[in-house]
Design brief:
Blueprint (H helix, E strand, L loop, with lengths): L1 H120 L4 H7 L4 H123 L22 E3 L2 E4 L6 E4 L2 E3 L6 E3 L4 E9 L4 E7 L4 E11 L6 E2 L4 E5 L10 E7 L2 E3 L7
Antiparallel strand pairs: 1-4, 2-3, 4-11, 5-10, 6-7, 6-9, 7-8, 8-10, 8-11, 11-12
Helix pairs in contact: 1-3, 2-3
């Protein structure tokens, strides 16, 4: 009679359990599909963000180059202006020297002319008078030599003054030429300065527009990241509900067995120790990090074990498979095993899956082969442990 009652109780409960299971599985599948759509949009937006960042970087580099050219032109313009001022000062001093040389030359020339005229018109004056006063022929010769030397000296002085005047005029001509060249170079530098200022203003406008576009796309990416996080949190909640469903199923089976008069052992608690699902080095520990694929600073909710593609992945403890299939949240091929006591383990990036949802597995049983599916930079096994749906460090459980 007890067996009949147990069978009837179990028969009454199983349809309700199956219906609830079906609804949770449908919600999980729908949530996965939603996450897939969000990830597809996020992939497009991140590509647009990368393009926008590259565009901003390119325009910024061009603007920096233009600003460097402006600084160089400004420096050159300052040098030219200083050279023009120096040349103008030299020209002013050169004019003073030229005027002094011309005045001195005129004085010497006038004095010589006066002496020659006096000697010609008034024979008893000037040089002639000096000669006629000689007391002897020797004195005359000596006086003649002195007069001739004086005349030559005056003529030499005039020649030197003329040479000085010609030298000053040559310097002035050169300074005027240099001044003209410097002024032309200064005008050209001013034109370059105006052109570069215009180019800089244009590129600054382009940079502002590109940065505004980048900020807009960044906002969209942030919104999609938030939506992804919220969707994945909802998926975690559904998986947690799946675990609760498994607990109800196990409790229903235990109750039915007790009604049937069977000796039912106490409900086993969560396993205190887990075996390593694969043998290999830890390439990324549990904790916050920059995701190598999405470049987002986020919790790495497990450990990465470096193994080659095709390496056998074993169940870390006995339990029932509650998820087995493709995960659009980045895990690729994924398995989740419920071990009772609200503890579950997660296996990601698998190349092959050997088990199905609802299948009971034993500790150490081969459940999959490792790979690099989903968001992965290379072959490895991502292994996660969750208590009540919340990720914990697997190293606290692995032995």
């Amino acid at each position: 009679m007890k067996r009949v009652l147990a069978v009837l109780a179990l028969a009454a409960f199983l349809p309700q359990l199956a219906l609830a299971k079906s609804r949770i599985d449908e919600k999980i599948q729908a949530q996965r599909a939603h996450i897939h759509d969000v990830h597809a949009k996020l992939h497009v937006k991140r590509a647009q963000l990368d393009e926008a960042r590259a565009k901003v970087g390119s325009i910024q580099a061009q603007l920096d180059d233009t600003n460097r050219n402006i600084a160089a032109v400004n420096g050159r313009l300052g040098d030219l202006q200083a050279q023009v001022r120096s040349t103008q000062r030299k020209l002013a001093w050169n004019k003073v020297q030229l005027a002094a040389a011309q005045a001195t030359l005129k004085r010497h020339q006038d004095a010589l002319n006066r002496r020659l005229v006096d000697a010609y018109e008034h024979g008893d004056l000037g040089y002639v008078d000096v000669l006629l006063r000689a007391r002897s022929f020797g004195d005359f010769v000596e006086r003649w030599n002195d007069v001739r030397f004086l005349v030559k000296a005056n003529e030499a002085t005039i020649r030197d003054r003329k040479a000085d005047q010609a030298h000053i005029v040559a310097i002035q001509t050169g300074l005027l030429g240099a001044q003209s060249e410097l002024q032309a170079a200064e005008a050209q530098a001013h034109q370059q300065q105006v052109a570069l200022d215009g180019l800089a203003a244009q590129r600054q406008q382009l940079l502002s527009a590109a940065d505004a576009e980048r900020q807009h796309v960044q906002t969209e990416v942030n919104e999609l990241d938030e939506e992804t996080a919220a969707s994945e949190a909802q998926l975690e909640a559904l998986i947690q509900a799946k675990q609760e469903e498994e607990e109800r199923r196990r409790e229903a089976e235990r109750r039915a067995r007790r009604l049937a008069g069977e000796d039912v052992p106490p409900e086993p608690s969560a396993p205190g120790q887990l075996m390593w699902p694969a043998s290999g080095p830890i390439t990324s520990p549990f904790g916050m990090r920059n995701n190598p694929v999405t470049h987002v600073f986020i919790l790495h909710a497990g450990i990465d074990i470096g193994v080659a593609t095709g390496t056998t992945v074993a169940a870390a403890a006995a339990g029932r498979v509650i998820v087995a299939g493709w995960d659009d949240g980045g895990c690729g091929n994924m398995i989740v095993i419920d071990h009772g006591g609200r503890l579950s383990t997660q296996y990601c990036h698998l190349s092959q899956i050997f088990v199905a949802v609802g299948q009971d597995v034993q500790r150490g049983q081969a459940i999959a082969a490792s790979g690099s599916t989903g968001n992965s930079t290379g072959p490895h096994l991502h292994f996660g442990v969750r208590i009540n749906g919340r990720p914990v460090d697997p190293m606290s459980y692995l032995r």
